[in-house]
Amino acid sequence: MCCGLSVIAASARVQFSGRISLVEVYATVTDGYGQPLRGLTADDFEVEEDGVRQTISAFAPGDVPLALAVGIDRSFSIKPPDLRQAGRAVGSLLQSLHPYDQAMLIAFGSQTEIIAPLSTRALISIARRVSSD
Fold first, then answer.
1. Under 8 Å between Cβ of 25 and 47
2. Which residue stretches of the chain are H helix?
3. DSSP state of 35
4. What is the pLDDT of residues 9-31, one digit of tens each?
5. What pTM did the predictor assign?
6. Nearest to 87 by CA among 70, 110, 101, 75
7. Which of 41, 61, 87, 101 would you call most buried, defined as having the most Cβ atoms within 10 angstroms of its Cβ?
């Protein structure tokens, strides 16, 4: 029985071989004011692996949807004014997201609770809920 397993394992090693032909790299480029720079091309970037410049074989500019999970600490170690300030900051962050971005809100303390599951539709209601807590 062991011989049969070793033969199967040996043939499985030969069967599964491969190589990486494309690696995706996401980048956000901003100016000194934090505003995104538009109109960049592949010629504006350099990608290196172990100090060796790599060829950029595919380039697709544009906005990539974001999936964001935000955790709010509601434990007793956080004072109510600090929790309200954190809630306002999260609300501001969520309101700055694009309509196609997704977000979810998790609260943790003695227990963990999903306040709002991952969604695009709920961003504004999540932001309002967080900033008013």
1. yes
2. 2-15, 80-95, 123-132
3. P
4. 555 555 666 676 788 888 888 89
5. 0.54
6. 70
7. 87
Task: Note whether residue 22 is domain-resident.
Answer: no
Full residue range of the structural domain in which residue 83 is found: 67-132
Handedness of CA 21, 45, 60, 68 (dihedral sign): positive
* Burial of 25: CB neighbours in 10 Å, binned 0-12, 13-18, 19+: exposed
pLDDT of residue 16: 63
CATH number at residue 109: 3.40.50.410
54 falls within a domain: no
For residue 1, being part of any structural domain is answered with no
d(CA 122, CA 108): 20
CA 58 to CA 19: how far, in whole Å?
Answer: 17
